[in-house]
Specification:
Strands 1, 2, 3, 4, 5, 6, 7, 8 and 9 form a nine-stranded antiparallel sheet that branches. The protein is globular, with a radius of gyration of 20 Å. It is 24% helix and 30% strand. It has five helices and nine strands, in the order H-E-E-E-E-H-E-E-H-H-H-E-E-E.
Length: 228
């Protein structure tokens, strides 16, 4: 007899991989993120820069999707997308977002909440030119989040663009689309979550104490512990 898989409610594991005490915490959210990101890379996690981006539109309708982090510095966290996509339209009307880095093998997650603004055209162009040729064409080919009749529509559009912008080996062979660019998430809070036994998890959160807080400014953040 084939054994049935366990019910969802029966799935559980005990988190005993680490701890996060106040004495372990870096002085700034950027410092702590760098530590944990380095750990995720060293652990060879699949797509360690993958993050869930949650937005809501002007009517408060939420949506979430996985996006790749493409930049982090003292300003905040940067990702790129089509501005006409579902998330792009939502951020145009309600420029706030939450990011979740779900590093399950390490029993860790990072939750960012912040205000969002578009990065400069120059910054977007610099990143776009670093993408592989096929990825640059793909940005042009996809009217992201729009309904299409079939995959053949997408393939035909890609072929048209490949003919219009042949691969010359130059980063300038495919120009930056007007409808494509980056978003900078400027955190108001950054929470670091470490799984612990008996569901008594460690949750330490940096909270912005100034209107314009850089992620590496010790004086701009306060820290607090959250109940699990």
């Amino acid at each position: 007899m084939t054994e049935l898989p366990p019910r969802v409610s029966d799935l559980r594991r005990n988190y005993d991989d680490g701890r996060l005490l106040e004495s372990d915490l870096a002085h700034t959210p950027l410092g702590q993120f760098a530590r944990w990101f380095d750990d995720a890379v060293a652990a060879e996690l699949v797509e360690p820069n993958a993050m869930v981006v949650a937005t809501s539109d002007e009517q408060g309708v939420p949506s979430a999707r996985t996006v790749l982090l493409k930049g982090v510095d003292r300003r905040g966290f940067v990702f790129y997308t089509n501005h006409q996509s579902r998330k792009g339209r939502a951020l145009a009307g309600n420029p706030r977002a939450s990011l979740v880095f779900p590093w399950y093998p390490l029993s860790r997650q990072i939750v960012v909440v912040g205000d969002v603004e578009a990065v400069s055209r120059a910054e977007a162009a610099d990143y776009f030119s670093s993408r592989p040729y096929a990825s640059r064409l793909g940005a042009w080919a996809s009217e992201q989040s729009s309904v299409i009749a079939s995959r053949d529509v997408l393939k035909a559009r890609y072929a048209e663009l490949a003919a219009a912008f042949p691969d010359s080996g130059s980063t300038a062979d495919v120009p930056l689309p007007d409808f494509w660019g980056g978003f900078l998430v400027k955190p108001v809070s950054v929470e670091f979550w470490q799984g612990r036994p008996s569901r008594l998890h460690d949750r330490l959160r940096f909270v912005r104490a100034q209107d314009e807080a850089l992620l590496d400014d010790v004086e701009a953040w306060t820290t607090e512990r959250l109940s699990p």
